[in-house]
Amino acid sequence: GNYFGNSSETSIEFSMEDYTFSLIKCVNEGNVTGRHHVGGIGGDFAITSYSYSSNFDRVVLSQSYSDGDVSGETKVGGILGSSHGAVNICYSTGEVSATTSTVGGIVGDFSNGWQARIANCYSLAEISGTEKAGGIVGLAESVTINNVITPEPSY
Asked: Which has more confidence, 22 or 58?
């Protein structure tokens, strides 16, 4: 497909009680420009650890959208520049561009999070980048991607 990743499942159950931090119903209707980790809603959406503990905070962004142009050098996403958390029920429109690499309609760099997953999202954004460009995710490592939609590419 046009997104990065493959799965046989069609949905993921999200329980907000499973997360320590939740960002819900966030909206961006303006343009965002930066260098690294640039997103319409957030730049770097990461899991943080508790002090003196092996427990991790769990973060989720849900029911949010970005309707503006997003641009930067690397790790650029319509919703998040980079993420190690969960993204659920989100969409992006507009133009999303990276001058070097790693650009996605929802998340630019989505990797290495023990609970990193994206579900029930779509992007109608126009994506441009030199490498690691995807309709949903530019770079995905050790993540779960389910139930996402991108438009058919136009040539």
From this structure: 22
